[in-house]
Structures are given as structure tokens and as C-alpha cells.
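Sanity check

After download, print the first record. It should look like this:
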Amino acid sequence: RPRTALFFPGQGVQRVGMLDPWLAAFPSTVKPLLDDINHTLSISPSLTDLITSGTNANLTATQNAQPAIMATSILILRVLEKEFGFDTKDTVDFTLGHSLGEFAALVAAGNLQFTSALKMVRRRGEVMAACSASSSEEMGMIALVCEPDQRDATLDAITRHLSANPNLNATVANINSKTQFVLSGDIAHIQQTLKHIRHFDSHDPRAVRLKADSPFHSPLMLPAVTLMRKLLAKPQAVTFDASTLPCISNVTALPFSSADDLVDLVARSAAEPVLWHQSIQYLHQQQKVKRWIGIGPGKVGRNLVGKEVGIKGLGGKGGGVLALTDPKDLDEFMRALEDTGKVADE
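Expected C-alpha cells:
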């Protein structure tokens, strides 16, 4: 089979009702998983109620969105495994997840147990929400879109300006693709920085305000780093042995090298940049990954991967970017999975 990476989405893809099609299509598999999720978190209203019938505002709240997205992603993976015989360990060479998606990737890789990861993500979301509430300024994130030959120069100009002005509460939070990166922090400070580079450095990236009221992957999130170090360091919290798949760190864009490395880097990821573009480059160029499987709600991750590896859908010679978000896509997904395996065999 082709070398394969399994990837998961991050915050922002949540949608009220995103579990409903899966429950309707596979009740005998999904209902026990939903009961397990609700028993694990014991919140009111329950997480599954928030997902199926809550308000968009409640589901978007960080402490709800993060466990909701991770739970939905793993639920879809479990449906694949139980209903269709998908063998993650036999099909996949690497796992990775964008920002929050790293937790689903660690569950899929076997490094974290699902229920303990769900509790961690809920606690992490609560602390992150409190961090955001502690600021009196308008906080958030702004994505910048550049031409491919301008991204690095624009990044350099912004980094120089922020280094020269430590009073500015803004930082680079994500490097998502060869044309896009994200700034996080005080919105007024980010806008001030953009005004500076447009005037003095002749860089004029297109700015898009993200639907996030929290400055993720910024120093304001350091309390979440402290929390995650504590939770991940508990006995038996992390498994790292021959049974686990290689999982790519958001912080280094390389596989975690040990249990201690995993604890350190996963904790730090709450306040440090997501090197998503570099992660895809590493797998594509150095590890020669040809088949990419996206599991979970939304299409953002699939689009970012497809743009970098130059494939939309099946790419021939066993390669392709496959994605599973909704049960209606299952037939096409399973055919593509089989077809890419056949081409690789030939």
C-alpha cells in the first residue's frame, strides 16, 4: 500500500448537528460511543446534547468546541473500524492533527486513551476560555494570505517588527500553507503591525478575521501549558512503545521521539505556533507519503493538505487526498481507499 498519513481537524469546524447523520446511519455503533462520551465528561447539558441540539454560541465556546470536535473525529474513526473493518495500525504510517486535532491524532496513534484525552481537552478548553476572559482587550486571530513567493518575506517583516516592539501583544500562531499564516493576540496590536509592514515594508497580505474570540497559540495561553504538563505527566497517561504509530508534533513538525518528548511538546503546543505547513512538507518530501486520509468535521484540513501536495481527490499511482466528514461520503471514500491500495499493489 502507499505510505499513508491520517490527519484530523482543529477548532473552528464545529457545527450543531454534526453527529446526527452518524447516529442515524450507525445507531448500534454510535449510541454506545455517545453514552461513553457523556459518562466521561458528566457536564450539563451533556456534550452530545450541545452537539446535536445546542445553540451555535454554546457549541462554539472553547470549552465545548474542543471536546466536541475531538469526540466527533474519533467517533467517525471508530465507525470506520467497527462497521467497515478499517485497521488503523495496518493502513496508516503517520498520524497528525491541526492544533486541537493533535489530540485525536494521538488517540488514533495509540499514545492516549480516548476517555482520558476527552477529559484533558475539556480541561484545556476551560483554562483557555478563562485565559481569554482575563484580558480586557479585544483578542482574537487574523489569517494573512500572501502570494507563495511573499509569505516568508512577510513573516520576516512581521517577526522583526514584533521583536522590536515587545509591548505589542501579538504573535505568529499558525503557519498553515505556502500562502497563509495566522497572527494571534490583541486585535488592535495585530492591526497596528499590519499597518506598519504595509507602510514600511511594502507587504500587503489579505487579512481575514477568524471566528475565534481567543488568541490561541500565544503566550496568553501559558496556564494551559502548565495544566497539560500536569495531566500528561500522570502515571499511565501516555503510551509510547512499539505498538504506537508515529505522530507528528505541531511544535516541531517531526514525530514525537519519546513519552517525555510528547508530554513536553503537546503541553507547549497550547502557547506555541502550529507548524502545519512544515509538517505536511516533512511527510510529503522526506517520508514520501502518497495517501492522505482526513477524518472529522469540516474541509479545512483537506484543503490545506491538497494545496501543498498538489492533489485534489485521487492522484494516481496509489496517491490521493481522501476525506470523510459525512456518512453520505462513505461509498466514495471506501472505493478510493480500495483503489489507491490496488494501484500501489500493481
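If your output differs, re-run the checksum step. Summary of this record's structure: The chain has a mean pLDDT of 93.
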